[in-house]
């Protein structure tokens, strides 16, 4: 009797599995060639490969072993890592519409008002409307120039991964994730500040102090009844938060990296200071319009962005299946383009770890999104709309610092001892502060 029951159960299980296999359509993973993937562990997948170093370092190490297009399971999130110029061009240009979404996370949902900003908003009609407003009304070359007097005043004064995201089906983690409650608390504080900010601008007449600022422009657009998507206060606050986080944090980080590299490379420091001082001999200060003549300074900034892109990993999400480097990238996959790794790849750069601004002399390579070995601002539809704004916030302050002061290390320290260790975060800054002694040149 027991033997018959065992045979019946085994036969029933076999029939059930056979029916399930026949009724289940073949998934893309069975019919398409997926990118190579290292051996993984149960539950955590490949998360153990990221332990011990910053993500962009760890991902370069893994792709150097397994190839420039790699599939990783980060918890439950299927992620494709891209670390070559050719694959990046296919993902960000050839298949740009299919790869134009952003991955979602708890932090960005909370702090960026449910993805209603530009940087983290899904690819949609709303995103296109808000990006158009930002490009035409906020960040056009004309408007960036019009904000120059504000930057000039400030410069003159100067001369100052979530676990729950990786396991979305583990609902308990979303409850236990303490960082979520910290973010909600921060969001409430940010809300209070930005609400006050908007109220102050509404109380003042637009243009009372000599022209519109970014908040005035957004409030004016809010009154435009012809927009497809009416702009709410939360939408405005999300855009402002974009400007502060992406526009100021990345700029100050780039200046810090540039000064550290210049101190470690005295030949480059002497050359860029000579250019600036020769161009503006006798001037008390440098105006923003003057910076355009400083060719070598621009090369210094380019080289800084190559070695130290403020955002080393560019995140995308697939809206549709696409092929990259001969591999299928399935719908809803997360894509990470390691721009930091490509900026240090010896296949594209001679002496890739050396700080040599001259490499960009007589070179057509630029950061406008056409040379995919060098994309610190991204590329394609998601290229940073505030690129001109960010560069303006780097060029003038750096020029002023190098024009007005000579720089030396504190007593007992040497330039080669500057700690270049990186810190993690939204932007990758230096882990420890840069302490230099300014002196007024003769």
From TrEMBL:
Gene Ontology terms for molecular function: heme binding; iron ion binding; monooxygenase activity; oxidoreductase activity, acting on paired donors, with incorporation or reduction of molecular oxygen
Compartment annotation: Membrane
Primary residence: membrane
Gene3D superfamilies: Cytochrome P450
Keywords: Heme, Iron, Metal-binding, Monooxygenase, Oxidoreductase, Signal, Signal-anchor, Transmembrane
Cofactors (names): heme
Binding site for heme: 384
Cellular component aspect of the GO annotation: membrane
InterPro entries (alphabetical): CYP450_71D, Cyt_P450, Cyt_P450_CS, Cyt_P450_E_grp-I, Cyt_P450_sf
Pfam families: p450
Record-linked CDD domains: CYP71-like (cd11072)
Span of the signal peptide: 1-24
Topology of this chain in the membrane: Single-pass type II membrane protein
Sequence similarity: Belongs to the cytochrome P450 family.
Name under which the protein is recorded: Cytochrome P450 71B36
Organism: Striga hermonthica (Purple witchweed)
